[in-house]
């Protein structure tokens, strides 16, 4: 019980730090501007108005949330290290695992708030253009949140042993590869090189397939997404998050702050 109390306190402190950060409000402003651009581009496309508005708006929401998860995930731990705050925290009855989990849950709650804000903005845009809001719209937002959580856990993992710039670079690489895994696998399987074929079968397994959370096309074409599929890939995302956090905790436990 005390363990979860410590995690909750750390998560609440992390949440307050982000809310007070000027970058957070800048990100909100950028989100509004980008989504406004999507609303402007829609009418310019004549017959494709609704499709482009939906596609661009959801894509913009995805990029904004991912940028927030990578930035705050990379900043949260490294800033504590630079300011020697971490040294004070670990001398208290707080384990390093609790510290990592507290940081993650604090950022995860920020992501929930961000998704809700983006959902309200998107709903306003959809209502203005008379685009029906169906259940797949909320499933698409949930997919964006799952992707952000996975990338957040990756950035926290890299935060345990490297610098801010490299954290961002590595996490962005995971983002790019995660969306190109299926394409890469198809291309590598066509080669006759044994090593490349081995990579196509097993090498891609070390990267989470982020395209699995992309239900944006279903919103564009108003297709149904089975609830079982949403549940399966929610479990898939949570599994990757747990894996990355466990590795981060193991590395963090071996780190010397003296």
How would you portray this structure in words?
With 258 residues, the chain is mostly helical. It contains ten helices and no strands.
Keywords:
258 residues, mainly alpha, 10 helices, globular
Summarize the structure.
The protein is mostly helical and 258 residues long. Helix content is 80%, strand content 0%.
Topology:
Elements: H1 2-20, H2 22-44, H3 49-82, H4 85-90, H5 96-128, H6 135-159, H7 164-189, H8 194-201, H9 216-220, H10 227-253
Helix pairs in contact: 1-5, 2-3, 2-5, 3-5, 3-6, 3-7, 5-6, 5-10, 6-7, 6-10, 7-8
Kindly report the average pLDDT value.
80
Tell the overall outline.
globular
What summary fits the major beta sheet? none
How far the N terminus sits from the C terminus, by CA atoms, comes to 29 Å
Low-pLDDT regions: none
Instruction: Please tally the helical runs, counting DSSP H or I stretches of 4 or more residues.
Output: 10
Structural class: mainly alpha
Question: Can you count the beta strands?
Answer: 0
* Helix content percent band: over 70%
The fraction of residues assigned to DSSP E strands is under 5%
CA radius of gyration is 20 Å
N-to-C SSE series?
HHHHHHHHHH
């Amino acid at each position: 019980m005390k363990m979860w109390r410590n995690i909750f306190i750390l998560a609440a402190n992390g949440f307050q730090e982000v809310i007070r950060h000027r970058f957070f409000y800048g990100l909100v402003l950028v989100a509004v501007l980008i989504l406004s651009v999507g609303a402007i581009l829609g009418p310019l496309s004549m017959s494709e108005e609704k499709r482009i508005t939906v596609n661009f708006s959801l894509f913009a929401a995805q990029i904004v949330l991912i940028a927030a998860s990578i930035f705050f995930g990379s900043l949260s731990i490294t800033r504590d290290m630079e300011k020697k705050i971490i040294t004070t925290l670990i001398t208290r009855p707080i384990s390093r695992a609790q510290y990592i989990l507290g940081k993650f849950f604090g950022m995860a709650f920020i992501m929930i708030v961000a998704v809700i804000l983006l959902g309200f903005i998107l709903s306003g845009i959809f209502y203005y253009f008379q685009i029906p809001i169906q259940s797949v719209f909320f499933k698409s937002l949930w997919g964006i949140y799952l992707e952000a959580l996975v990338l957040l856990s990756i950035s926290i993992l890299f935060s345990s042993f490297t610098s801010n710039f490299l954290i961002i670079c590595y996490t962005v690489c995971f983002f790019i590869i995660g969306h190109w895994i299926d394409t890469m696998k198809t291309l590598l399987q066509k080669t006759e090189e044994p090593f490349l074929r081995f990579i196509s079968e097993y090498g891609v397994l070390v990267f989470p397939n982020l395209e699995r959370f992309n239900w944006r096309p279903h919103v564009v074409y108003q297709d149904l997404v089975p609830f079982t599929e949403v549940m399966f890939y929610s479990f898939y995302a949570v599994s990757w998050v747990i894996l990355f956090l466990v590795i981060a905790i193991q590395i963090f436990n071996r780190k010397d702050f003296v």
